[in-house]
Each structure stands twice: as structure tokens, then as C-alpha cells.
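Build the 3D complex.
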Amino acid sequence: MIRILLADDQALVRGALAALLDLEADIEVVAQVGRGDEVVAAARESGAEVCLLDIEMPGLSGIEAASALRAELPAVRSLIVTTFGRPGYVRRALDAGAAGFLVKDTPARQLADAVRRVHQGLRVIDPDLAAESLMAGPSPLTTREAEILRLALDGSPVAGIAARAHLSEGTVRNHLSAAIGKTGATTRAEAARLAQANGWL
Amino acid sequence: MIRILLADDQALVRGALAALLDLEADIEVVAQVGRGDEVVAAARESGAEVCLLDIEMPGLSGIEAASALRAELPAVRSLIVTTFGRPGYVRRALDAGAAGFLVKDTPARQLADAVRRVHQGLRVIDPDLAAESLMAGPSPLTTREAEILRLALDGSPVAGIAARAHLSEGTVRNHLSAAIGKTGATTRAEAARLAQANGWL
DNA sequence: GTCGGCTGATGACAGTTGTCACGGGTTTGT
DNA sequence: ACAAACCCGTGACAACTGTCATCAGCCGAC
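Done.
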């Protein structure tokens, strides 16, 4: 019997995945949480062996949760299951110690198999995404540039970004200019959009 | 036996919802599609009575699919089930003839009940979202303003928007200026973000 | 029929943004 | 020790953006 923890902030999806996995004779959903920062405690309590983690969650992201799991409960294996197949996510998930990475548009019948493989200690990675991830390469942005771009996501003017980052406006514009150049964009809004689509933020 | 069609572009979610609903004795999933433009044909063929429609789908949006269903198969009832609880979506869904509107973080156990109510001819609307939708009121944007804002979503400069819209740059800036004023934003990126969050695009 | 709103356009203006060159500080690896 | 990268900042300039006034054609409502 494979003991599973489900982490997804959308209750309906979480419940539906539970129903799907409970159909399998050798799989048992032993815990469900809706926040990333509840994963470790729930995994410890329930004695889960495999954690299915969504990335977009309040509290901690699925990737951060995988990292925390590796640190606290190294025996537990993480399988990231997410909506967005952003190239950068794959690398970051693997760096965080995740054993697998699936996108939510893989066929439902493959999920149980992925869980079994991860449970056996194998790696499971969406092949299309793996290729894309290798093509795209790592993020070209420096820490600071990514940080500034994240603050630019909401469309606020330079003055607002500078205030939130505690930087001078000139410095912010320099970072943005660098980010625009590196992403191949022409405006900061486009750069922010591209960087997010690549999972660089 | 309530005959259901599932429409969601994420195969995993679709399959999981099918598993969840098939647990109910009086509900049967008779069709599944991953695109909005396959809904009507599949509903006709399968003799579905209730359609669960995601909004974000390739081909046609769930709202457009509901509209098409009302026109072609008026006996079929539509229940919108979506990730984003954008106020404007509720109104547009109801205008399109949808019988219900749920967000994906409602508890899984409530889904079957919602399906039954919709099947009985009742309306089912997420109460929080209904309130928010009434508060927010209808979109303040004119058709053209919304259209221009949609083109501004990717962060391209005015010249690019003007080219795609076949308008002069001056006119585009006028529309954007109006949209910025109406949304209470200070830049077009912020206006586009706000408008999208409200479901006005 | 006239008024008001939407649409398209122009021109002008101030303010913001993107770019560049430059300088100084820190850390990292050789 | 040194180079290379990063970070922060300044100042200047051209380009772009947001705003406003103004005009004109086209509806639909009263």
C-alpha cells in the first residue's frame, strides 16, 4: 500500500485527485492539505511515503515544500504536479529534491503509474517539458534582476518599485534595462511576462 | 441517472473529476472533452443533460460554449466550474445561459450536490462570488477599450498595439488613457492587470 | 431632430522610461 | 593579486507614454 499526501490549494481538484487515486488498489490517500506550509507536519503525522505537490499554493510553494520535505523527512518522495509547464520550474523542482514533475494535462491514467515509479525510487519527468527545459537553459537573470522584475509584474511605475525595493530609481531602471536586454523584450512589462512564463521568477 | 459531460483542458483534472462524480450512484459521466469547440457535438452525441465547463479552454471558452449550448441544445444545462473567481465572469456566464457557477476551491463533496440542483433546474452560484460580483458592478470599459487593453496585456509598446488594431498610435493612447482612468490605475500595465482580474477582458 | 456616447484622429505638453557611460563597492574564483 | 561578476548609484539623452483639447462621423435614445 503506497501512502500518499495531496497538496493543492483548490479543494475540488484535491478531492477529485483523491477519488482518482483511491480507485487504485495499491494506493491510499492518507492526508490532504491546501497550503504549502502544512505539508511537512501533515506528512509526518500521516506517515505518507509520497507527496503530490502543486506549485502554486499559499504559504509555501510546492517547490519550497519539496525542499522542506527533503530536509525534514528525507525518506518521503515528492512528485510535483502543476498547471504550468514552465521550463525553469523543472530545474528548480529537481534542485529542491523532487523525484518527479508532471503537468496537469497528462492523461489521468498515467498518474497512478507515476506515483508507483516515484515510490520505487525512480525519477518521473514529463518528457516534453524535460526537453523544453534543457532547450531554454537556466535563467539568465541575476538575483536582483529577477527580484525587481517580480516587483514590476503588477505594472507599477519605477518610483513604486524603487520604494518597495529600497533602491534609487536609477538603479531600478538599470536592473530593468538589463532584464529587458537579457529576455529579448522591448518593455519591462514584456520582460516580466516572458520571465514569468519561463519560471524565472 | 444524471448524464454529465466534462469539459476541461487539463486531462488530469478532467479524469479526476470523472472519478469523483462516478462515485455518486445517481451520476454518470458520459463524455469528456478538452476543448470548448467540441462541447456541443459531444453533448449532442452523448445525450448529456448537464455540462461541467471550465472557462479557460482552447477553441472556445467555457462561457462561449455555454452560449452555444443554449442555442443548439436548450435542454442541456451548463455549470461553469473554474479556477478564477473573477467577478465579471459570473455575470457573463449567467448572460450566456449558464445555470451555475462554482470556483475550483469549493469542497469536493459539494460538487455532486451542485450537479443535482442544476439538473433539477435550479441555479447554483458560489455565494461569495455572487456578492463580489454585485459589488464590482459591470465593466466600465467600452468594447474598444477592452479590446485595446487585451492587446496591451503582453506588454508591447503602443506602436505594436496600433498595428495589430489597425489604428493610429494617437487613438490607441487615447483609449488606453481612458481605460487607465476608469480602472483607477496609473499605467497601462496595471490597468490591463486589474481589468483581467475583474474578468473584463 | 437633437443630445449624448462611442469611435477615430491630430497636435501639443509634461512626465516616465529605456539606454548608455561612468564610478565605486563587494564577493568569487584563479 | 587580479579579473570577473554582481550590486548600487549618478547624470544625461532620446524615445515613449499619459493627458488634454479639439475636431468629425456615426449611431441610438429621448
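Chain B touches chain A through 37 residues (CB under 8 Å).
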